[in-house]
Amino acid sequence: VQLQASGGGLVQAGGSLRLSCAKSGRTFSTYFMGWFRQAPGKEREFVAAISMSGGWPNYADSVKGRFTISRDNAKNTVYLQMNSLKPEDTAVYYCGVDMDGQGFGMDYWGKGTQVTVSS
Asked: Are strands 9-12 and 113-118 parallel, antiparallel or unpaired?
């Protein structure tokens, strides 16, 4: 499984960014794709995940109402629309695939993409 993430960058507080993660390689009948993030000096934490076969997405409390995860099954791609960004959202964002859970523990990881929110 290969995961290619893109869309990070530098944005001012209150701004928006959209991350994309495209999956290629091995296929699965049902699985979750999602995002974690890791800020300097902190552990990697869950952000959001979505089932690629339907159902409600999962969000961390810290991003509910500001971030939206969506999918394009035809492209094997998930998106993370991040609005009302805060400096504390600054982190490296990693996308992943969870084969047998609900996106809280990934089996495959992509390379991270840096998101920096300036105050």
From this structure: parallel
Distance from C-alpha of 104 to C-alpha of 92, rounded to nearest angstrom: 17
Q: Which residues pair with 115 in a beta bridge?
A: 9, 91
What string of pLDDT tens digits covers the 119 residues of the chain? 999 999 999 999 999 999 999 999 988 778 999 999 999 999 999 999 999 988 889 999 999 999 999 999 999 999 999 999 999 999 999 999 999 889 999 999 999 999 999 99
Contact 18, 83 (CB under 8 A): no
- Contacts of 61 by beta carbon, 8 Å cutoff, 6+ apart: none
65-92 in b/e burial notation, b at 16+ Cβ within 10 A?
eebbbebeeeebbbbbebeebeeebbbb
Q: β-strands 2-6, 45-51: how paired? A: unpaired
One-letter amino acid of 52: M
